[in-house]
Amino acid sequence: MRTSLCDTLGIEHPIVAFTPSEHVAAAVSKAGGLGVLGCVRFNDPDELDRVLDWMDQNTGGKPYGVDVVMPAKVPTEGTQVDLDSLIPPEHREFVNRTLDELGVPELPEDEKERGGVLGWLHSVARSHVDVALRHPISLIANALGSPPVDIIEQAHSHDVLVAALAGKAEHARRHVDNGVDIVVAQGHEAGGHTGEIATMVLVPEIVDAIGGRAPVLAAGGIGTGRQVAAALALGASGAWMGSYWLTTAEYGVTMGDSVTQEALLAANSSDTVRSRIYTGKPARLLKTKWTEAWAAPDAPQPLPMPLQNILVSDAHQRMMRASDPQAVSMPVGQIVGRMNEIRPVAEVFNDLLREVEETFTRLDKLR
Amino acid sequence: MRTSLCDTLGIEHPIVAFTPSEHVAAAVSKAGGLGVLGCVRFNDPDELDRVLDWMDQNTGGKPYGVDVVMPAKVPTEGTQVDLDSLIPPEHREFVNRTLDELGVPELPEDEKERGGVLGWLHSVARSHVDVALRHPISLIANALGSPPVDIIEQAHSHDVLVAALAGKAEHARRHVDNGVDIVVAQGHEAGGHTGEIATMVLVPEIVDAIGGRAPVLAAGGIGTGRQVAAALALGASGAWMGSYWLTTAEYGVTMGDSVTQEALLAANSSDTVRSRIYTGKPARLLKTKWTEAWAAPDAPQPLPMPLQNILVSDAHQRMMRASDPQAVSMPVGQIVGRMNEIRPVAEVFNDLLREVEETFTRLDKLR
After folding, report:
1. For residue B168, what is the nearest residue in chain A, using CA coordinates?
2. In terms of domains, do A215 and A300 share one?
3. ipTM, 2 decimals?
4. Which of A169, A205, A221 comes nearest B201 by C-beta?
5. Per the domain annotation, does B261 fall within a domain?
6. Do A204 and B189 make contact, defined as CB atoms within 8 angstroms?
7. Mean pLDDT of all residues in B247-256
8. How far is residue B134 CA from its own chain's centroid?
């Protein structure tokens, strides 16, 4: 399987892996796809710098990219203290009460006050871009759509392409107007931030809307070669896959996080929920006792971005350190129903390629 | 494009059209697909009988099917009067107040008291089956999943196949265990009754779950040849399309309903909502002032099936007779964004076939 995207990105197979794990990203790039490292977990730009150094040494010279979380409009930001003061005490009480009810222990003293996940802040996302552009990256993707035009220009001046996620055709058009090079058409069934329109409808709609001005990657619901082939049938130039790498061995190497993986392995395709509780914007998450608590009639409404993430940041840390797969907070798409064993990235990747070929052969026989 | 389903159903192209319009159903069958006439609009079995007589004379001897709405479990039914008494007065007041606010006129005196749409009642659906089996039908499809086993056996004794819609893999398995011959995997993006799981994820899941015991039709989000090809890539043996025929010329011939078609033509893929207000079970509808009124904080919760449909039946009649495309009640899928002109069925059908071939050719070049 080869599309024009392979030439655009200098890759062998048009499969792009979004992942917070540098081990997954490197393994995908080495397998001939494009690994895209999610930067939102790096509060400290120096830590991102060190991880990208590691990437530079472990991708065998193959291309890779990074993913940031940056609104097109620059929001007014305060300091951490200012933002904290905007969180209603009732919300904090609800979070603490819920964690107590779920039996989630407090963080050890030496891990408290780490300050939450700051990658959702515009200034921090900008520092991610600055750091990343000092490395030989091929792509900057933005989870929240088109980044500000100056970021796009900065990337282009480093010969780095820019990709932007879109959940509606009108957004995709706007992204390309801004100078975005690749559109990721992310359907309703995807994990993380996601819109209402399903991949089957969204992909050809976006392909038609931007009329060949940029290649389109299909995202949402992809975990088999049949689904990659379907994405290509819909007019995409490749597949953007995020959730499916969460149950690879390499993800476990980075995250050391067997509880989350255990929860993902046990889930079926009905075990997700789209909710604003993760960041303040609708995102698809694994359905757990934590998401159920927020769906109860007495639960507060989630706060807007970035307040909601600050509110739940400690809770996420606490649940990740605890050992209850029923109480985790994890973005994942409906493809979770097909994530049923821990496997190495290379094996997953080769299975995808093999099934794409099988699907093409099967379709050819229907003619 | 030919799949095993073509032999199973004796059709030329594996495209099945669900439609309440006999003119659409006949045109699809004549074009080489399978037209499946929705029976729920027929309160009077004799009227269905007459329409099926018309089908027998106007399908050129090509196969066709019918679609009924029948729960697998036989519910306790009262008479129309009993059911009416179960509807809270507050619900009736809300409906009347909403229609007044939307400026929807009352029905003329001679059209009142027609008794609502009874096709949602089990007894009426059974009478539809009895009538249909007196005609040379090829297929009975059930919108609510597997029909009761005695209905399946009755169909089989007439050499009629049974299809059942499924929104989850476990439902599909149960349908096939009951003797259902064809599973329609209907994704979240579909119009009418629909589940949470999107077509991209659902179709291969159901194909794998039933392991070749029955062919699978993909439903939800299909309106172009690219989407038909994607459905086949996902492992489906064909496409089940419902919404897309609502803006054909033939639909207008049956329904004489230019207001609804006008509303559909104007809508984009974001203009649908999944709600229980149509029948009591979650169904995707065109987003209008009517659906928005039910989504308001002060609106009552929809009633369970079949009460909700009885409650809103007169309202549906009133809105259909009125001339405001902003106040209609119409099940439709997200593909509505691609329904932008009134065209004859044959033209739509031929475009689908042409684009499937183009897609296969395009995919072949990616190998």
Report:
1. A270
2. no
3. 0.95
4. A221
5. no
6. no
7. 95
8. 22
